[in-house]
């Protein structure tokens, strides 16, 4: 069961290993080079990645359910109980990395990147040009 899940989840782990704003910038740049809408290209990429995240999350739920059922039938090694929790942590890290990439792509903060952190700028006033 875990081996089968591991094989299926490898693609998700690879797809979400370190996504950053460069991925989104590349999608926009490629669209521009083909005279296509860069905003639509980034939107399409993000929708695709969100769809993949949803599929991964569903697979984690199924894994957790299957492990719970298996534990009721017979005693399982301790590491199997941690498997779905570990995958959930990986999923949350991937989701966070994607959210940070979106924030940096749309609201890039160069000084923050140099410091190795993230920043959220919240204002209540009108945006420039409003």
Give the arrangement of secondary structure elements:
Blueprint: H1 2-15, H2 21-33, H3 38-73, H4 78-107, H5 110-115
Helix pairs in contact: 1-3, 2-3, 2-4, 3-4
Annotation keywords:
130 residues
Quick summary:
The protein has 130 residues and is mainly alpha-helical. Helix content is 76%, strand content 0%.
Largest sheet: none
Please, how many helices? 5
Mean pLDDT: 79
Tell me the overall shape: elongated
Query: Share of helix among residues?
Result: over 70%
Strand coverage percent: under 5%
Q: Give the end-to-end Cα distance, rounded to a whole number of Å.
A: 55 Å
Tell how many strands the DSSP assignment holds.
0
Helix-strand topology string = HHHHH
What this model shows, in words?
The chain is mainly alpha-helical. The chain is 76% helix and 0% strand. It is built from 5 helices and no strands. The protein has helices spanning 2-15, 21-33, 38-73, 78-107, 110-115. The longest helix is centred in the middle third of the chain and has 36 residues, at 38-73. The radius of gyration is 19 Å and the shape is elongated. The N and C termini lie far apart (55 Å). The relative contact order is 0.13.
